[in-house]
Amino acid sequence: MPVLSNGVSRDARPPLTTSEAPLLAIEGIEFSYGTVQVLFGVSMHVQEGDTLALLGTNGAGKSTLLRVAAGLARPSGGRVLFDGADVTGSPVTDMVGKGVAMVPGGKAVFPDMSVAENLEVGSYSIRRDVAARREREAWVLDLFPRLAERARQPAGTLSGGEQQQLALAKAFLLRPRLLCIDELSLGLAPVVVEELLATVRTIAASGTTVVLVEQSLNVAASLCTRAVFLEKGEVRFEGRTADLLERSDIARAVFLGGSKNGKRR
Q1: What is the value of pTM for the model shown?
Q2: 64 contacts 80 by C-beta, under 8 angstroms
Q3: Is the residue at 119 inside a domain?
Q4: CB 3.0–4.6 Å: which of 77, 84, 109, 144 could bond 155 by disulfide?
């Protein structure tokens, strides 16, 4: 695999033809929180049907980059292309309409609302198509039968794993072309994580493109075929996850198995 002069590894592939153009392309993204810059000219691409992991050390800018891609944060430089169109700075509502859905890290449900009410909010963008909304709600409840059992239960009383199921279900309601997931495994027991991964694999197998921010290299490797490793706001590696596993310098920086305590971004 070729290594660029700055040490970044990249897949060996010929120039993209129009038909092979990435579903998502990040080009030279710069981002700052006030006077603190956290992303420095980050570039990456995601082909349609890919499963890509965004990995990195604490504070590397993984979640920020995902927010930029989903339309939740506006970069100070660079551009975002989705399906060939420049969508830099587009509001999140427009990105949802284009087929981008995001499961944010941490609390991604409305705790005082019931499971059913959370799903109703999640399907707001298709509220006028009653038949489609009911069909999609039935579909996600089939994927997550425990949510069906707890439909009238306040979301805040669900277990951590069940709340993550609900967050995924709300995103799946949109039938996204690109699904962005921030910290799927955060704070969850391994057996719960594997249940969630199995469902995400089902969604990916249907053709949905998945970008997953993770701290656990094991979790990322079990789901994603490609990976991008960020450190201090810059890309250190982009390529196959299998090749990343052989990079001991990077593997040491990522918690193998993933520590489940503490705030990680």
Answers
A1: 0.83
A2: no
A3: yes
A4: 109
